[in-house]
């Protein structure tokens, strides 16, 4: 662990549960009915993503179109929002996560030590910074 001067403070929160779907129309119809909430954004007939908004206990539920089911890929993953994704990626990699691929603008797909994928993204959901935690991690360096 570094000294206080070497540690950068930033905010994080679990924001989104993302579910992969080969048939996005079927998944959107099911989850919309199951959670008794309308689609908030996206057209399941043509878009890659549709959102049910803050449907599950304050978490955003996002459905993501995928070309096929994959045995070696998560079908559900978490998005962690951070006001400083680069600092959060540095903190998580210091805890044992590994970088899989960049998403652009400082956002990343990571894997936890067991290989479970998750994303670190900029804030996208309403009411930021409500529900966040302030954490400190190492000063970010380039990947």
Description:
The longest helix has 11 residues, at 24-34. Strands 1, 2, 3, 4, 5, 6, 7 and 8 form an eight-stranded mixed sheet that branches. The two termini are 20 Å apart. The model is unreliable at 1-5 (pLDDT under 50). The protein has helices at residues 24-34, 85-94; strands spanning 7-21, 49-56, 59-65, 76-82, 98-104, 107-111, 117-121, 133-138. A hairpin with a 5-residue loop joins strand 6 and strand 7 (117-121). The chain has a single domain (4-137), classed as 2,3-Dihydroxybiphenyl 1,2-Dioxygenase, domain 1 (Roll), CATH 3.10.180.10. It is built from two helices and eight strands. The protein is mainly β.
> What class, by secondary structure content?
mainly beta
Cα end-to-end separation: 20 Å
Largest sheet: 8 strands, mixed
Classified by CATH, the class is: Alpha Beta
SS field, number of helical segments: 2
What share of the residues lie within helices? 10-25%
Brief summary of the model shown:
The chain has 143 residues and is mainly beta. It has a single domain (4-137), classed as 2,3-Dihydroxybiphenyl 1,2-Dioxygenase, domain 1 (Roll), CATH 3.10.180.10. Helices cover 15% and strands 42% of the residues.
